[in-house]
Write a structure and sequence with these properties.
Elements (H helix, E strand, L loop, with lengths): L16 H6 L7 E7 L2 E7 L12 H16 L8 H9 L1
Length: about 90
């Protein structure tokens, strides 16, 4: 059985410290509440600023994974300056 918390004024509850630590939750983090049968499901959520949402698209994340794989495999080039980079791109 889990730890019991009391519902306080304004419907507030305390998330036990060991759960906060295990899930790396901090004051100000957001959580989502859902109902499943007669249970309350509480899960951490990350709210992404709309201006940054492009980064989390499926297409972009696939490209990020591909880039990570290329770096791990050594399929990358480095340049000392922008001119050398531009020359390599033109080739």
């Amino acid at each position: 059985m889990g730890q019991i918390s009391e519902i306080r004024i304004n419907s507030q509850i305390t998330i036990p410290k060991h759960i906060m630590e295990k899930l790396s939750l901090q004051k100000g983090d957001k959580v989502e509440f859902d109902i499943k049968g007669d249970s309350i499901i509480v899960k951490p959520v990350l709210i992404i600023d709309k201006a940054q949402s492009w980064f989390w698209t499926k297409k972009w994340q696939e490209a990020e994974k591909e880039a990570d794989e290329d770096m791990r495999a050594g399929r990358v080039k480095t340049f000392d300056n922008a001119d050398n980079l531009m020359k390599a791109l033109e080739e």
